[in-house]
Amino acid sequence: MFPLHREREQPIFSSRAHVFQIDPTTKRNWIPASKHAVTVSFFYDANRNVYRIISVGGTKAIINCTVTPSMTFTKTSQKFGQWADSRANTVYGLGFATEQQLHQFYEKFKEVKDAARLAREKSQDKELANTALTIAAPQCIYSCVSQDLSDELQSPPVMCVNGPEDKLFRSQSADITLSSEKERIKKMLSEGSVCDMNLEAELFTLQDSNSKLVAALHEANANVEQWKKQLAAYQEETERLRDQVAELEAHGGQGPSDLLKDELSKSLEELEALLKAKDEEIHILQGNKAEYHEIERERDEAIHRLRETEMHNSELERRIHNSEQNLNNSLEERDRMDSEIQKAIEFLDIKIFDLNDLRQSLVKLINK
């Protein structure tokens, strides 16, 4: 059966640090015990009233130290601290990422050491609780281990100072899909924005041309009205002169002289030429009016296309917002799963180490 005190051993504090051990030969140099930062945890066994510091790298126990009142954790720099374990005949060193993390570990070490001292004072005549081992069938061991792992996974979460340094679970396919979808929608939105800008520039050009044509048309209409009035006046003057000529011719001897006739004929020709020029200008203005209507139609089409582009951009923005929200939800879910898997693996590492202890204990009992 799995030792009962393991079932009551709970993590009370956890941090991440680089672990070192003193060189047993020189007693001066530090030897790295881990390639990267690992989790270093304080565990409390309520049954035996014992505190331990445990750190596991893979299936190997890097630190397995029982805290005693005689231990002292010393800060040797802003981010490094050490303590000596006489039972293991070694000195452990921890390198933290920040000074705050070192301070938190230092305070927890003092707290655990004081608690161990109080426990020893209350039970000086007692040693560590007896580890009653009962040899049972392998199936019983497997069932107990499975139950223990289930209980550990349902236990309260460990308080982590640094948090996981490396992600253990990466949904690469989800990242690639979400990122490609987001890039594609952004590209569509940028293309829509460029089209929108081109349409706006075209609309502004058409509006400018339209305003110029409207001003020219208003001016031409005003000139036409003025020219019509002048033409009517010229026609009245021509009719009056013709009447005078006819009247003079009717009086015979009293008719106008040749000089007067020439002047009247010249004036009449000038008036006809002016009338013809004004008619041509009227035809030109009427042609410009047709062009003005064509430009107005093009402007209406450009406004319609601009509105359709704005609606398309709104739809793209809505899709981008939904994609970003889905991406954030996926990232949050993945981080949550990463955290749960990290905790589960830490507990599994510890339990694997405990199983190795159990195996060695069983071997020793069998050999006896």
How many strand segments? Answer: 8
Strand content: 5-15%
Indicate the low-confidence ranges by residue numbers: 1-6, 127-172
Order of helices and strands: HEEEEEEEEHHHH
Mean pLDDT level:
77
Task: Specify the overall morphology.
Answer: rod-shaped
The profile of the biggest β sheet is:
8 strands, antiparallel
Radius of gyration in whole Å, from Cα?
A: 50 Å
Q: Report the total helices.
A: 5
Q: What class, by secondary structure content? A: alpha+beta
Which percent bin holds the helix content?
Answer: 55-70%
Record keyword descriptors for this entry.
rod-shaped; single chain; 368 residues; alpha+beta; disordered N terminus
Question: What would you note in describing this structure?
Answer:
It is built from five helices and eight strands. The longest helix has 110 residues, at 258-367. It is α+β, with helices and mostly antiparallel strands. It is rod-shaped. The protein has helices spanning 4-7, 99-122, 138-153, 172-250, 258-367; strands at residues 9-22, 30-32, 38-45, 50-57, 60-66, 74-75, 80-85, 90-95. Strands 1, 2, 3, 4, 5, 6, 7 and 8 form an eight-stranded antiparallel β-sheet that branches. Helix 3 runs antiparallel to helix 5 (258-367) and helix 4 (172-250) packs antiparallel against helix 5. A hairpin with a 2-residue loop joins strand 4 and strand 5 (60-66).
